[in-house]
């Protein structure tokens, strides 16, 4: 990565962090004064749009900003460990949790309780993958395929048991729906994001050590199993928080595609981490704007923008992907 690009990436990450602390965390916790929304509405109307006048739009943007941070953050570790498909597995496990939660709370519609049930299911699925992987000796295709297909099968059975869930549009879970990002969901996403960022910051050195040389980490008496479990639980948190906008089918893309694009231009693990966050934020915000303008599903639009960034990086570098080996 050349010096100018590195400076631009670090400045962008700083701007994202500042905006998250100064704007989006206060919105998530209901601390932003009404005059902020009034001023935003006035500014939007001056630009010919009333989108900024709707609170659910701010909820959606807030959740999107958090997704753009924690998705690539966790995804960087997963991609470097060749565990990219684990996100897809946990997404389907979370879907089974949502289906079961809807069966429990039939008639209540979308509720933050569904996210909590989905989170529990995703964590159970994550630990199940880890247990099967330990039995088979690696994070191979077999344990991932078993948990992925099994959890989705359970989800479909729960749907049938609930009579098709007439009270809840199941497509909202499969493809994402910005209208379900209510205040409680946004607050939960903020808490999840804070937890992920704090834990990764505290355990960064250990996670990095295990990512690049798990055998040496064992020799150094690093509790590898514990950190593997921690990483997979963090992945479950990211998946459940992100499925509100992206949906089950596409949520794993935000763990992989921004990192794949960043790895083509970055020269180290840390540069990949920072660059992937920038790519993730660009994909989320651009995708949301395009989805509003052309009345498209936000999940698909966000992922298409992210893939476009990846293809642009491929054209620019002439490579299709290789993870940086330096820290």
TrEMBL record:
Its main location: membrane. It is a multi-pass membrane protein. Keywords: Membrane, Transmembrane, Transmembrane helix. GO terms for biological process: transmembrane transport. It is found in: Membrane. It comes from the Archaea. The chain crosses the membrane at residues 7-29, 56-78, 90-108, 114-133, 145-168, 188-207, 219-239, 245-266, 273-294, 300-318. The keyword Signal does not apply. The keyword Membrane applies. InterPro entries: ABC_BtuC-like (IPR037294), ABC_TroCD (IPR001626). GO terms for cellular component: ATP-binding cassette (ABC) transporter complex. Belongs to the ABC-3 integral membrane protein family. This is Iron chelate uptake ABC transporter family permease subunit. It comes from Natronorubrum halalkaliphilum.
